[in-house]
Amino acid sequence: MSTISLHDTHHDDHGHGHHHETFLTKYVFSQDHKMIAKQFLITGIIMAVIAMLLSILFRLQLAWPDKTFPLLETFLGKWAEGGRIRPDFFLALVTIHGTIMVFFVLTAGLSGTFSNLLIPLQVGARDMASPFMNMLSYWFFLVACIVMMSSFFVQTGPASGGWTIYPPLSAVPKAMPGSGLGMTLWLISMVIFVASSLIGSLNYVSTILNMRTKGMDLWKMPLTIWALFLTAILGILSFPVLVAGVVLLIFDRSFGTSFYLSDIVFGTEILPNEGGSPILWQHLFWFLGHPEVYIVIMPALGISSEIISVNSRKPIFGYHAMVYSLIGITVLSFIVWGHHMFVTGMNPLLGGVFMITTLIIAVPSAVKTFNYLATLWRGNIRFTPAMLFAIGLVSFFISGGLTGIFLGNASLDINLHDTYFVVAHFHLVMGSAAIFGMLAGVYHWFPKMFGRMMNPKLAYLHFWVTFICAYLVFFPLHFLGLDGVPRRYYAFTEFEFMNKWLTVNVFVTWSAIIAALAQVAFLFNFFYSIFRGKKATQNPWEANTLEWTTPVEHLHGNWPGEIPTVYRWPYDYSKPGADQDFILQTTPFSETMSSNLPHDFEGNEEAERIQREWEAANKPVQE
Amino acid sequence: MVGTLQQGNIPVNFKAKKFLVWLFVVSSTIMFGGWTSYYLVFMASKGKGHGLVLPEVFSYSTVVLLVSSVCLFLAARALKGGDTSKHRMLLWGTFILGIVFAVMQFQGWTSLYQTGAVLVNNNAAISMIYIVSGFHLLHIVAGLAFVLSSLIGSYKNVSQEVAEYRQDITSIFWHFIDILWIYLYVFLLLNS
Ligand code: HEM
Ligand SMILES: [Cu+2]
């Protein structure tokens, strides 16, 4: 029944198949989740490169505030008149860098890619609940990217109020150049982006809850799926609040309402808006904003769980604890947003409450970290590129998470808020950790996506340079922050006490440049391997999950025959008594009598009896 | 070939698609939750709400919307009972009541406007009335589209399975926007 060879079906598909696939339906308006995943990934990579280049531009300014770079004027024209980046443009660079990285790369690029690729493949479904909406999700994302980038081509430049777009800078179009058309485009882009993200999330959740294959109960799902599932739920519950906030902001900007505005004076002119409060924007924004940082990190954590277990050849340590920590993070992330607002004049009692919830959320994060370390402990580790990046994630998650605990204490945060300490914190824990999770995923599932392998040598080069440079870039920033150096400043030349940090800034910029160059190794490897990489085998990493039971060649519907049934959890690696060091989820217990354990049967007495009989009959042979 | 993947056609999972509508309902609720939270925090910090007597027409429109929900409920029953013409008639009823509701909302805004409670206002609580009722009306437009798709299905004689699926998602969505309006209306009445 399920043994029809792949080639037959493939032929069928093309011969008198249902829809004749044209270039347009296959590569452009595809409704196949695997193709949509690739579209998300490649768009995400392009956006990441753009955002990285923007960061190099502002790093140049920070390191050499007095130097001129005539080359910059050639490329940027009036934004870098006389070879120096203009202050307005500096602010725009920081803002758009942050926006692209957080939303377009680490939300859409990460969740969009891996949810689309892995959800149907790992739960055993032919496609998403609504392939059409899935396609829509990608196209909205692309349009959002284009609108955001188009703001570089308007007279007044892109939005410049920071990625959190606090009013009044974002609410009063004439506040500064970047508050004009660029800000409007930012808001339009973000509304489209949220639509994309919501449509995607609805699909992911519905697919996971309704379309799992036979035998795949929730507790047999790989941790990637758990993480992507809870991420999607976080998105569904938090993004609408951002929309609510953005709608009010649009009304303030364009129609003259006063939701966030009051008592604003320009020179001698008093704005008519009265009675609003910019703090309310911060509440609405961070009610999304904090869950958003977990939307960014949870898929990366899920991906690492899977990769670390596969490449340690060991079951993940504390599978249930991992799931419960993810659930704990999901729930808690809704009640900690106030830690971004300790200095808004918040009631100290309320601040205390947010402080406690914030410190509690560190607990599930720590549980996950310890479980990673315990999985690695005495494992039979294979240092594949994916594994290195996953371990890199653990490293960054620890070093960045620790500073989170500093910041979570209101009394410390009042000093550290809006300094480079915060920048260091979130670039390690979110920036670096999540990017490493994403890269780990790309290296691991590249064979699944493209049927070919990436070059490991280039990958090792990519890893080591990026890993070291990321620390060299972000670690020194802690010390700037502790010394009180504020973030988002154009130049530190005007302040006596900051002069001593100039050499550090030069060092950081050089490290950033080297890290950026290392990405060329990745980009080359990625695009070259799509066409020329070594052909992949069906299960190159000897992993247990369902996606590796599909044929290497893609077909719409994933499995040529019936969807396989699942009998066991995904982490049976190095099970004592088994013939191989991995047992696919599709292998029934009846085929692995020598390695079954009593708790495998989940209380099924019939199965336990059969196992006992088998053991009684086979024992003498083994001795 | 016996595999379930016949000629690459992927069977549609109606249950999963219906679930999408439920999830949308959740996220939309949260969006309105964001606005009403704004309202509560605003009221707590400024010590004032919109301070208006809401136009009477809002209470009539509430009744119209409730009746439309009943109408749609009966339509779903008629479809299950196989009574196509009754189903159609009741769907049309829902559709028309939806339009009437929309017209009445416009009347409500007009009378607000005439009493001086305009959108561009130094009392954000008053602006908020327009925001929530306006975005609710957008949901009504979407709901009307759902009703229409059920109607079209009925005239095109789609299979019973598809007809019931369309009817189901229409019902979920329409009853939701009905309840949503009642919530918003009561909220605005209580927090003046
Ligand atoms: C161990 C748990 C964590 C704690 C206790 C914590 C605490 C904090 C606190 C208190 C702040 C506010 C600092 C300020 O603006 O003064 C902050 C900022 C931030 N955190 Fe964390 N954090 C933790 C983990 C994470 C994770 C896992 C991520 C992302 C993956 C993250 C991303 C961010 C970002 C993006 C900001 C800065 C937002 C901005 O102002 O632009 N944090 N964190
Ligand atoms: Cu936070």
From TrEMBL, chain A:
Transmembrane segments: 40-62, 89-114, 135-154, 183-205, 225-251, 284-304, 316-337, 349-374, 386-408, 420-446, 458-481, 501-528
Cytochrome oxidase subunit I profile domain mapped to chain residues: 23-550
Annotated localization: Membrane
Alphabetical list of InterPro entries matching this protein: Cyt_c_oxase-like_su1_dom (IPR023616), Cyt_c_oxase-like_su1_sf (IPR036927), Cyt_C_Oxase_1 (IPR000883), Cyt_c_Oxase_su1_BS (IPR023615)
Keywords assigned by UniProt, alphabetized: Electron transport, Heme, Iron, Membrane, Metal-binding, Respiratory chain, Transmembrane, Transmembrane helix, Transport
Membrane topology, as annotated: Multi-pass membrane protein
Family per similarity comment: Belongs to the heme-copper respiratory oxidase family.
Name this protein carries in UniProt: Cbb3-type cytochrome c oxidase subunit I
Automatic annotation (TrEMBL), chain B:
Family the entry assigns: Belongs to the cytochrome c oxidase subunit 3 family.
Keywords in alphabetical order: Cell membrane, Membrane, Transmembrane, Transmembrane helix
Boundaries of every Heme-copper oxidase subunit III family profile domain copy: 1-192
UniProt entry tagged with the keyword Transmembrane: yes
Pfam family, one: COX3
Spans through the membrane: 20-45, 57-77, 89-108, 128-152, 172-190
Source taxonomy: Bacteria, Pseudomonadati, Bacteroidota, Sphingobacteriia, Sphingobacteriales
Compartmental location: Cell membrane
Gene3D superfamilies: Cytochrome c oxidase, subunit III, four-helix bundle (1.20.120.80)
Protein's membrane topology: Multi-pass membrane protein
Signal peptide span: none
Protein name per its UniProtKB record: Heme-copper oxidase subunit III
Source organism of the structure: Pedobacter ureilyticus
InterPro entries tied to this protein: Cyt_c/ubiquinol_Oxase_su3, Cyt_c_oxidase-like_su3, Cyt_c_oxidase_su3-like_sf, Cyt_c_oxidase_su3_a-hlx
